[in-house]
Amino acid sequence: MRERTIASHFARAALGGARQRGYDYSNLLQRLGISAELLDEPRARIAPEQFTRLIQGLWLALDDEYLGFGSAPSKPGSFAMMCHAVIHCRNLESALNRGLLFYGLFPGAPRLSLTREDEWVRLSLDDAQLWDPDHFLSESLLLIWHRLGSWMIGQRIRLEQATFSYPRPEHGAEYDLLFSCPLQFKAAQSSLLFHSRYLNMPLLQDERTLKRFLERSPADLLSRPDDGDSLSSQLRRLLSRDRSRWPDLESVATHLHVSPQTLRRHLREEGSSFQELKDQLRRDIAIYHLGRADLSLQQIAEQLGFSEPSAFHRAFKKWTGLTPGAYRAREN
After folding, report:
1. Which domains does the chain have, with CATH numbers?
2. Does DNA-binding appear among the keywords (predicted)?
3. Is the per-residue pLDDT at 332 higher than 60?
4. Given a cut of 60, is residue 227 above it in pLDDT?
5. CA of 280: how far to CAs of 130, 133, 190, 213, 265, in Å?
């Protein structure tokens, strides 16, 4: 979904390496229309396009695709060169092994490995040597390799489990959107588990599609939503189809051929609720339009199903900590 937004935490975390190096990124933020006040608000969100450009800008400024979080820098262009090295591989297994071998040539690069566990495959990250207080690089590397693999074979690789070597962070609720699978924290290692059947799948991409892919990746891979198989993901897609009516829980349950009680229970098991999903979607749509100035505040309120603009103002401030007007002023 184009309106999916990024929590301000990830922008603050991405800037951590620049702060550590003493780099003044205020001009970069100003150029991207991201205010420092916006970043300081824990509930605030930014548009995915802004986040992609922020990552790309930091790469160039720091001359490091690891953004200062690795034990050694990775020169900009390393990821692109790795992709060129793997794009002609016969299948996903060959591509992943060659890609991991490529990064293994660089001293100080984070170590990733691919191991078989019966019918499963585990992609593991050794993050012990990283300076990564907010786990930004650990999250990014796992996301990038998962989404790169999915892109290469032309279908989403369904994750069975994601493990992390650290305790559940304060932004842990975002992990459900990032990985869309069962999560385990304080594990022996950070890793992703998926079925081995994907390894034999042929690559469906080529030099032509890779050129377009690299115009925005891997930064774009971090900002792209992972529309997995969870009920929450299904409901978000369902609610986004027809925004003129904003169906209630009962009508959605009928559409899915389950009882409202069953729907509530399944969402509760995923750590969510119907109202929470609905509010997250409305929040993201509001932020999308506030950043473009294509609709008035009243028109946005009407599109989101609010009968009064004042109700939209109250709801938006509850969601983000800012009023719609203040958010639009800081974005433009």
Report:
1. 6-62 (no CATH), 78-198 (3.30.1330), 230-331 (1.10.10.60)
2. yes
3. no
4. no
5. 33, 27, 28, 28, 19
